[in-house]
Amino acid sequence: MCRLFAVIAVVTAFASSSVLADELAVHRDEARAISKEFGQQLQAVFKPAMERGGAIHAIDACNVQATPIANERAQASGWKVGRTSLRTRNSANGPDGWERAVLVQFERRKRSGENPANLEYFEMVETGSGSEVRYMKAIPTAGVCLACHGRQIDPDVAAHIEKLYPDDRATGFSQGDLRGAFSLSKTLP
Question: How far, in Å, CA of 181 to CA of 135, rounded?
Answer without folding.
Answer: 10
